[in-house]
Amino acid sequence: MSEKIRSERLAKYLGAVLHGRQEVKDLPNFKRLIQAILNHDNHCAIIERLIASPSAMEALRNGLRFNITPVFINDFTAKFIQFLNDPAVKLLGNGLILQQLLLIILEPRTLWNSLMRAFCARELDDNATHALCWLTTELLSLPSSLGVNIRADAQTIVNQDHLFSSPLARLRNLGHKIKYLLEMKSSATASSSSEITAGGRHDNDFADFRLTAILPTADEISCTEKPFYRGAEEIAQLCGSQRIAGHVDNQFRLLREDMLSGLRDDFQIARGAKSGRRSAFHIRGLSLSSFSCSSKDEKYFRPCTLGVTSKSGLERMKGMPKDARTKFLKDTPQFVKHRSFGCLLKDMEIVAFAVIDRDIDALASDPPVVMLRVEGEDALNKALLYLKLYDDVEFLVVNTATFAYEPILKCLQERVDFPLTGELFLYEKGQPAKTSDLAPWSIINGLKGEYRCDIQDILNTSQRVTLDASQTESLLVGLTQEVSLIQGPPGSLLSKALHDHTHEKILVMCYTNHALDQFLEDLLDIGIDSSAIVRLGSKSTPKTSQLSLKMQHVARKRSQASWDIINALRDEARKQKEEFTKIFQAYKGLSADALSILSYLEFEEPTFFDAFSIPEDGSGMKVVGKTGKAIQEDYLFDQWATGKDPKHLTKLLPDRCHSIWTMEQKQRQEKIESWSRALLKEQATSLGLQITMFDKCEKRLSAVLGEKTRDILKGKRIIGCTTTAAAMYSDDLRCASPGIVLLEEAGEILESHVLTAISPETKHLIMIGDHLQLRPKINSYSLSAEKGDGYDLNVSLFERLIHAGYPHTTLLKQHRMCPEISKLVRSLTYPGLEDDEKTKTRPMPRGLCDRVIFFNHVNTEDEFTEISDRRDEGSKQSKKNIFEAKVVLKIVKYLGQQGYGTDQLVVLTPYLGQLSLLREVLSKQNDPVLNDLDSHDLVQAGLLSKASATHSKRQIKISTIGKQTAYSAKVYMRKPNHWK
Q: Which residue ranges traverse the bilayer (predicted)?
């Protein structure tokens, strides 16, 4: 038989299996199935078809266990496992498709145990050994939430000498990777030098941080014992992979504690235990009403949300007809705000944390229904139970932006393989920086010695580019080193050179939207085509709007296999929905009656069940009542529950049950209450499990449907985003796998955001920033470098590496400030700073005697109790100064008389309290324009409504210090911090 004919027959056979026409119930047929799969070169296409076919998946699940001998494993099983070892397969469905196949191979453990036995007995050939080792690395990399634990077996593999003594480098390398992954997963807290260790404080405290639920439990919030985290110096004392594992562990714990510190504060304010702005949304007397998990036509599915009605808290809509409610809800998005985070409470006991899913149709119904998304299986079960047991459960919104933390924390938990570890984690002072494999030597050689020369031809830019010595050095370092630290620009030139002279995808990440848009505009200006760039996030400038994700199109159409997967998952989701619809309705109507309790007792407390069961007489006949009628099944239970005895049935009951009938009435009622609660808990757990199963199905469906976004990112050379967008699109960015990551404003980005932005495929990291200016913003002052306790959460990766002695370059010449201004920063911070010649010839400001003027006064500042400035050394309150606000208003008027429009002015202040006051004072005659970061802070504090209209007044920009980079102006007015 010719190879072509056999190939065609195998393809036909595979098609029959995929469509359910051919059953695979014996070993010969399973061999043919494996051969048919291996007959295909396009691994992704065949894997998609397999996943979309329930019959094929069942054939694989069973067939892999038909024969588990070493011979069959070498000839067939290992080859199938190797077929999965394709980077493109790993990207399918955001990694969930490969994950599903790995779990089919692993569970049940019959095949896995045979693989391990054959490996230890040296009965696997080289290819099968490679397949087992690759499978082990993938299983070790699975999220801890899946509950897969093969650490003991993985340790057995690396303990075998024959793996590391193999003549094949590919086997030895996989052995080293398994060893590294094991160390990353097991050594994070093993070497703590203090007596305090992780684990045991409450129900969410574990030695392995990957087991920690990101949102806290009620026990955790109420726990007063200090959580486990370590100082930066203690982490630095660790060696090798222990330092890497410990560092990632500590970044997770510190960042999560920063989230929890804000949550604790907000919760205490909401409870009235602490002063501050109370929650704007608080509903009481909740009742479980409904659930939602799809569109009405079931074409689109979403994670399940619970609908609750309330006795109070939604009075603003009271008396409105439905149409008026709908209009009100559309016009007032801040009322029952979408994605607001809050907690379900019972007598101030935290039941669970939840997020509002704003459904206008549900809210407009009568009575209004608020949809809540409860995270975590245990929390969901508890919420379902309490909403059934009690009628005084409340929901209280807190202000902590948990959605900004969750993606980063989740990514830290899931990541075990980090790139550039020698530079980012293990660098020792004095070591030379590693040269990048991506270094474009033709550009580098052309730049050397070109100080002060036009390098337009070298970089092929559309504009003339002239660099001084320090700028050229910084550009060379950024192109040459695997990891480079540059104190200042030019990031756009680096991107241009790496775009033109490498084939790698480039991720550009900035702290602010303004910096990102400025960077992307620079890329367009120097000649990079807009079709090569995509911008993540909703904000943009007119020039960068064309780059936004929503403006991009994908030429590739979905394959039929992809549609088959989608349709199969939709069918599964519909079946899951039908199942838990029945369970939900049954749970809503569930009451702990006698028969339900008896059914529960039969399995949980059989002695009580026997005590309440109608006995038979000695002849096997059923006992009847005095009237001759059969005694009802719940008769004895009702007798016992009402404090009575079994009457004429006493002598027929088993002896072991007599003590039950002697219990006091109080004890009986306590028992009934505990059984009722246990019965409801059992049903709540069953419902919660069904919801969790649906959500997992929906997650797989969303991953497949989300391939459009991933296809767009894969098709672009440059991806631009802020740190916030990077967190929101973290899964998509991991699939895009940028080989080059460039960070602007690196000194203001938390290290955890950088660690989660880079992927195992990152080969080149460029960080541009200034560690001498403001650090990243955090909630908890106690974790900051300024506090001095050594935790240093707000020390960026950029600053940490500079302090560790990592080589960095600094730009020496500034091109913006006049000499009168630059001499201030030269004497305070940058002693080597030079002024460009063009800064010395600028005209003097009109109406002022100097370029820099200090104004002294004796009017003291007041406390601003409505908000705290978290940057201000842990201060509980912000500050304001009415006198200074009036002076600023007069200066603005005076400068207007000199011909300076308010669009040329910027007012700076270190305090949010003063910012709010300035906005109030200036808004009487001007339209104060807030930086988007300041606006967020004021909205969060309740000092500014998001719906505030923009009036047709003259605009003037006001900002807190550190966020003014978003503005360019001719005159700056700044209130200095209080002198020390």
A: none
Residues ≥6 apart with Cβ < 8 Å to 517: 539, 540, 541, 543, 544
Cis status, amide bond into 108, omega within 30 of 0:
yes
Amino acid identity at 397: V
DSSP conformation class of 774: P
Look at the chain and count its residues.
980
Segment 249-269 shows an average pLDDT of 88
* Average pLDDT over every residue of 783-803: 95
Under the banding of pLDDT at 50, 70 and 90, the label for residue 161 is confident
C-alpha–C-alpha distance, residues 247 and 245, integer Å: 5
Place of tokens 């102006």: 969
| 968 or 23: which leads in pLDDT | 23
* Torsion sign (Cα): 240, 242, 243, 244: positive
Tokens matching residue 1: 């038989």
If you ran DSSP here, which 8-state letter would residue 628 be given? S
pLDDT of residue 253: 97
Place 626 in a pLDDT band, splitting at 50, 70 and 90: low
Alpha-carbon torsion (913, 919, 921, 922), positive or negative: positive
Quick check: bond before 490 cis, omega within 30?
yes
List the structure tokens of 363. 């809210």
Helix (H, G, I), strand (E, B) or coil at 834: strand
Tokens 């002072």 -> residue: 429
Structure tokens at 574: 């519909």
Mean pLDDT of 517-529: 91
Spatial contact of 798 and 769, defined as CB atoms under 8 Å apart: yes
Average pLDDT over residues 209-232: 89
Average pLDDT estimate for 440-465: 78
CA distance 340 to 371: 11
Residue 416 has pLDDT above 80, yes or no: yes
Among residues 478, 342, 424, 400, which one has the least CA distance to residue 780?
Answer: 400
- Stated as kind and residue range, the H or E segment containing 341 is strand 341-346
- Burial pattern 383-418, b for ≥16 Cβ within 10 A else e, equals bbbbbbeeeebbbbbbbbbbeebbbbbbbbbbbbeb
What CA–CA distances, in Å, run from 946 to 352, 858, 932? 28, 36, 11
Q: Where is mean pLDDT largest: 59-63, 404-408, 559-563, 708-712?
A: 59-63
Those residues whose C-beta lies under 8 Å from the C-beta of residue 632, and which sit 6 or more positions away, are none
Spatial contact of 709 and 553, defined as CB atoms under 8 Å apart: no
Task: Say yes or no to pLDDT of 400 above 60.
Answer: yes
Backbone angles phi, psi at 548, to 5 degrees: -65, 155
Q: Name the amino acid, one letter, at 261.
A: S
Beta-bridged to residue 777, according to DSSP, are none
CA-CA distance, 764 to 713, in Å (whole number)?
A: 19
DSSP per-residue string spanning 349-390: EEEEEEEE---HHHHHSSS--EEEEE-SHHHHHHHHHHHHH-
> Among candidates 335, 222, 346, which has minimal Cα distance to 284?
346
CA distance 725 to 210: 23
Token match 């088993």: residue? 654
Q: How far, CA to CA in Å, does 727 sit from each of 407, 761, 768, 917? A: 5, 18, 20, 33
- Determine contact, residues 102/146, Cβ cutoff 8 Å: no
Q: Both ends of the chain: CA-CA distance in Å?
A: 92
| 819: number of Cβ within 10 Å | 13
Q: Of all residues in the chain, what percent carry a pLDDT higher than 90? A: 50
pLDDT in tens, 469-515: 888 888 889 999 999 999 865 567 888 889 888 999 999 999 888 88
Query: Where does the pLDDT of residue 952 fall: very low under 50, low under 70, confident under 90, or very high at 90 and above?
Result: very low
Is pLDDT of 622 > 80?
no
SS3 state of residue 766: strand
Torsion 329-335-336-337 (CA) sign: positive
